[in-house]
Amino acid sequence: MLKKGSFLKELVSRFLSDEVPGLSAQLSYFFLLSLFPFLIFLITLIGYLPISQTEVLNTIEEFAPGQSMQLINTTLDEILNDRNGGLLSFGIIATLWSASNGINAIVRAFNKAYDVDESRSFIVARGMAILLTIAMVFVIIVALLLPVFGKEIGVFIFSNFGFSAEFLTIWNTLRWLVSGIILFIVFTALYFVAPNKRLHIKDGLPGAFAATLGWMVVSLAFSYYVGNFANYSATYGSIGGIIVLMIWFYLSGMIIILGGELNAMLYKRRTIG
């Protein structure tokens, strides 16, 4: 049996030697670049779907810090008030390019974790990043649609048995479970496909589970901290919302990379023995 101390010591060593803080900063930059094009695309697209802009923003608000939500709402209102026919096309192109840059940064981080070089050509690597981005967009849209249809079906079924009030309590719990499952699927795909190494899908499961749990806990804790203790606007003025958003993205990037480091560490221990 491997000792807990040696496990944590190796993980901390990887955290420092693989420059996880620096790579997380890169990811936060690309996340910020892709956020608004993605939201433009998503909110323009919902005109064709049975969900509203409010439901999209409420889903984000469950995890995002309060000050950053003010920034997101204000910026989206400014953009969408100036909307035109090419907004959906712009959103698709800008989202694919910006988000694929973020995926490329994740690929570099995972390759470093597994100690492998990127041998795939630029076209193959970029194509994979774009396909992963499209897959994630699809999963996010499904994640947004599930609560809508699930709630309607649930209310219909439970109301027939006179349990509509109890259902709302159950539903609020299920929404968190569904969010966790969607995140787990996204992270598993990312940890399986992104590294330039032949892996089995089960090799991505430990990191995906840790990243899902870690991201949800850290996001909620950071949101609570910002809402109750920190006042970034007092320090940074009008850009306080951007600072909060960048810190949230930085922490998110760190958790994603640490999940990859955990998978790489466990893989190495299994294969070397």
From TrEMBL:
Pfam families: Virul_fac_BrkB (PF03631). The chain crosses the membrane at residues 29-51, 87-107, 128-150, 170-193, 205-226, 238-260. InterPro entries: Virul_fac_BrkB (IPR017039). It is found in: Cell membrane. It is a multi-pass membrane protein. Keywords: Cell membrane, Membrane, Transmembrane, Transmembrane helix. It comes from the Bacteria. The keyword Protein transport does not apply. This is YihY/virulence factor BrkB family protein. It comes from Metabacillus halosaccharovorans.
